[in-house]
Amino acid sequence: MSLSVQFEDLTKDFGPVRVLHGVSFELAPGKVYGLLGENGAGKSTLMKILAGYEAASAGEVRIDGEARRFDSSRQAETAGIVLIHQEFNLAEHLTIAQNIFLGHEKKKGWLLDDAAMRAEAARNLQLVGLQADPDTPVRQLIVAEKQLVEIAKALSRHARLLIMDEPTATLTPGETQRLFALIARLKAEGVTIVYISHKLDEVERVTDEVVVMRDGRFVARAATAEVDRRQMANLMVGRDVSDMFPDKQPPAPDAPSALKVSGLTVPGWAEDLSFEVREGEILGFAGLVGAGRTEAFEAVIGLRPRTAGRIELAGQPVDLRNPRQAMRHGITYLSEDRKGKGLHVDLGLRDNLTLMVLERYAQPWLRLDRERDALAHAVAEFGIRTGDHASKARMLSGGNQQKLALAKFLHPDPRVIVLDEPTRGVDVGAKRDIYFLIRRLAAEGRAVIVISSELIELIGLCHRVAVMRAGHLQATLGLERLTEEELIAHATGTH
Amino acid sequence: MKSLIRVVGAGVLALSACTIFAAEKVTLGVAIPTATHGFTGGIVWWANQAKKDLEKAHPGLKIIVKTAGSAPEQANQLQDLLTVNKINALVIFPFESASLTKPVAQVKGKGVYVTVVDRGLTDTSAQDAYVAGDNTAFGKLPAEYLAKRLNGKGNIVMLRGMPTTLDNERYNAFMGVMKQHPDIKVLDAKYGNWNRDDAFKVTQDYLTRFKQIDAVWAADDDMAVGVLKAIDQAKRTDIKEVFGGAGAKGMVKTILDGKDKRIQADVSYSPKFIYDAIKLTAEARLKGEKLPATTIIPSVLITKENAKQFYFPDSPF
Amino acid sequence: MQPERTESPNVSRRWRTALSGLGPILGLIALCIAGTLLNPDFATVDNLMNVLTRTAFIGIIAVGMTFVIMSGGIDLSVGSMAALIAGSMILFMNSLGAGGHPATLVVALGMGLSLVLGAAFGCAHGLLITKGRVEPFIVTLGTLGIFRAFLTWFADGGALTLDGELSDRYSPVYYASLLGVPIPVWIFAAVAVAGGVLLNRTAFGRHVQAIGSNEQVARYAAIRVDLVKVLTYMLLGLCVGIATLLYVPRLGSASPTTGLLWELEAIAAVVVGGTALKGGEGRLVGTVVGAILLSVISNILNLTSIISVYLNAAVQGGVIIVVAFLQRGRR
């Protein structure tokens, strides 16, 4: 059942760029490994080679002592190696069951055996804890549910080695618990698991050993019990991450109200929501996926219809009917869906940065030189790492894309900025940069709203945290009550 | 809903027609292409003209005109005419010969008297009568006329319509005559798609390519319009004759008034033959008679002398 | 989690991008060389002006079409729209002319009507697509039929012809030249330059591109997506109006064959020129080159008779595919 893997001097080049430099290590069967590294460290590439999505430029992979070279993910799956993608590989218009068996359909003679597939899909869904009909089209699922479908799909392949790339990035604490139980169960059955995550607390809880990579090289491995989070982070970054979070500087006691929302109702998502954030304050929004946080703020800036509610910006009542009006009144919103709603990944860095306030550069013809200056300025200010200012946003790593997105939504110089999952899929170093940036924004007198599923982040960063559950505001916790237990209790309704 | 009203309406009509004119009732279906250019525009106009005139003259006659934009649509209309309108005679200008032969044969098989106009079916047993313009004369007359005007010597360029059997017949007839005049050179023949804009472009390029052209056979009056404009633009004076075809209103008027010395003659191929075909079929059926198997409406050379009798100011063509 | 490729940009891909941008131009140059070899008359100024003049209609429309396609839309109705505008202009001018107004004024008013109608039709498309939420393909497929049907009805299936004096007064708009270059070519050039500036150097152009690249992101980035979309269709309508006011004096008439298949030619010019049909990426220079390329193909075919006329369409199709192949992007 189990399977061991050995990487021997594995090298990978993308054109002239070497992303893996002779990586060698081995994975013993039946263990759970945490694979750590910042974005661009080469973890994903290495795993893609193992799972047959990419071919190595040099070196070899040995499976159970035998050198293997997979030309396709299908061959790897036959050998029992399955990769669960960070970016989903689901066909949106097909049902859950169809997706789970895509390319491996069960047949009865010439015809598809839908009944059998549906039954097995239902079994796998139950294992991963997704309560959904296997006939539901995937496009109707929310992100977290899609992640669970991906996992169910991997289960149906009867993997002997399972690679999970950031599986909990979109999951709620409850779903994450269930996933951990599943991992334990698979491990007991002898499945080897490679767990890639930026969430070090999870790595600490779920893995037996950690392997750390940096800049395309193998750096270290250790039994999880022997290293603490701080050491892990230091190994990944290659320097001492002395402190992830900046110290909290509370807003001035007489700071005026920046945004006041009262009685906001968004049909199907939020009801009678009231809150206020002051200048210089960082207000967090906690809650499970689907609690209505994202939708409530989309409604505030006019992207969704609201049926009731009053919005005041700097004490003035405003009627925001579209994002442009919202921006003109000094509020912008950065979506959690960076590639789908936040950035034009196929456009250049400059186009992305200036898009919201192009009129600033049009007199009436666009001044490309000024746009370029603005980009150079933003690259320096936000620490965006890019070799080429003329490249497309797609070429940036996740963390740098997020910094660019932040620069874009700050470019209109808003007084209130709403950041939805600002550190999702971002490595430790970039995370820290973003936290310090948020702190700086608040220090400049802006009001910052942070929607996040990472409780540590909310606790470490925010002055107050509002907790939503099923469209209702449950509680707003001040500094003195800001603990993981309180947040979870309010978010799940077990208070 | 609409078709339901039509069915009921047709039923009521048929009923009332039955009670009042019990005998000699003829329901004639007319299936023609939609008006997409001058010639088919004329077909539609003349068909409706025939309906107006004949229904007035014969109370027992009902004419239903259907226009189709494609061959499959025309085939569907035949079905409707048969089952909904219950026709007992049909005059059809087939969109295409081959693909409509079977559908027409089916209609005939149900006892409907079928007259085919202009384009012959591939299987002539599917029709009772055939009424057509004279495509051979359409090519032959201009060839003879141009050969005479050029005194058997000179350069001719020509335009063709679209790749169809009809176009081939005309082209072959023209070239047949030209064989007897070895000193007349036909420089090239390209498709102008029976439309003014394409004819304009093709002629522009002819003018670039050939430094001496004596006559242009435009093969269609619409195309002749484009040819003349292109010649005017290039300010070329070597072209002495432009010959169109079909006898369109504007062209006949030009000949009548002597407005353009390049336009001295035309050949008739009037869409009026659909009028003739409907009239012949309707009147024969009302008397219970048959038409001759083939009726050719002759194409005639139009010159200043006889132009008046080909001028119909009310027709769009 | 993308591999870090930012440090030294992929040189070979750079090259390919640069080359792919040149695809249509290389194709055009190759065609011109071939044309000259096949018939020396090809390379004359007169022939060049002929080709450019007849490209003007499609070219001007293709400039507008570039905006629509860049924003992720499509307009199938342009040919029919041109026909209906031409017919309406002629009817309007004839009736004014019959009223005894001075011919120059009548012609000027007619040209004005053409622009107004174009913009109005475009606006109607835009509103149906944005507010009515009907797919652009369907909206314009519908109006494709509607516009042409109305023209055919106005013309009784025949042709609408501009009255003699008006026609004489109007014809210089197509036939006259300025500095040896025909008026339509000047206007084509002006429209192309204006389009290029609008697309590359204004906020509107950037917004069009952003919407085509990812409409959702554009919406979140505070772009008035609906307004911009309506404007692209109006701009295209205006271009159709300009093309039509140049077209009418050529033959002085409009018939049901006017503008037939112009939509396909305009879309082909845009796509051959390197604009992605799915939107987001495109070049206006490419569109202009694409439009010229298409008319050069048929010009060369007319200037030679080495290939059977039955195969003309095959040659055109082949050249289009080869050019598209030369400028294909990644994947």
Automatic annotation (TrEMBL), chain A:
Residues 5-240, 253-495 form the ABC transporter domain. Gene3D superfamilies: P-loop containing nucleotide triphosphate hydrolases (3.40.50.300). Keywords: ATP-binding, Cell membrane, Membrane, Nucleotide-binding, Repeat, Sugar transport, Translocase, Transport. It is a peripheral membrane protein. InterPro entries: AAA+_ATPase (IPR003593), ABC_carbohydrate_import_ATPase (IPR050107), ABC_transporter-like_ATP-bd (IPR003439), ABC_transporter-like_CS (IPR017871), P-loop_NTPase (IPR027417). The keyword GTP-binding does not apply. One of its GO terms (cellular component) is plasma membrane. Pfam families: ABC_tran (PF00005). PROSITE patterns: ABC_TRANSPORTER_1, ABC_TRANSPORTER_2. One of its GO terms (molecular function) is ATP hydrolysis activity. Its main location: membrane. It is found in: Cell membrane. CDD domains: ABC_Carb_Monos_I, ABC_Carb_Monos_II. This is Sugar ABC transporter ATP-binding protein.
UniProtKB/TrEMBL annotation, chain B:
GO terms for cellular component: cell envelope. SUPFAM superfamilies: Periplasmic binding protein-like I. Pfam families: Peripla_BP_4 (PF13407). Residues 1-22 form the signal peptide. Gene3D superfamilies: 3.40.50.2300. GO terms for molecular function: carbohydrate binding. Residues 46-289 form the Periplasmic binding protein domain. Keywords: Signal. InterPro entries: Peripla_BP_I, SBP_2_dom. It is found in: Cell envelope. Its main location: other. The keyword Kinase does not apply. Belongs to the bacterial solute-binding protein 2 family. This is ABC transporter substrate-binding protein.
UniProtKB/TrEMBL annotation, chain C:
GO terms for molecular function: transmembrane transporter activity. It comes from Chitiniphilus eburneus. One of its GO terms (cellular component) is plasma membrane. It is a multi-pass membrane protein. This is ABC transporter permease. It comes from the Bacteria. It is found in: Cell membrane. It holds the Pfam family BPD_transp_2. The keyword rRNA processing does not apply. The chain crosses the membrane at residues 21-39, 51-69, 76-93, 105-129, 136-155, 175-199, 230-248, 260-277, 284-301, 307-326. PANTHER family: ABC TRANSPORTER PERMEASE PROTEIN YPHD-RELATED-RELATED, RIBOSE IMPORT PERMEASE PROTEIN RBSC. Keywords: Cell membrane, Membrane, Transmembrane, Transmembrane helix.
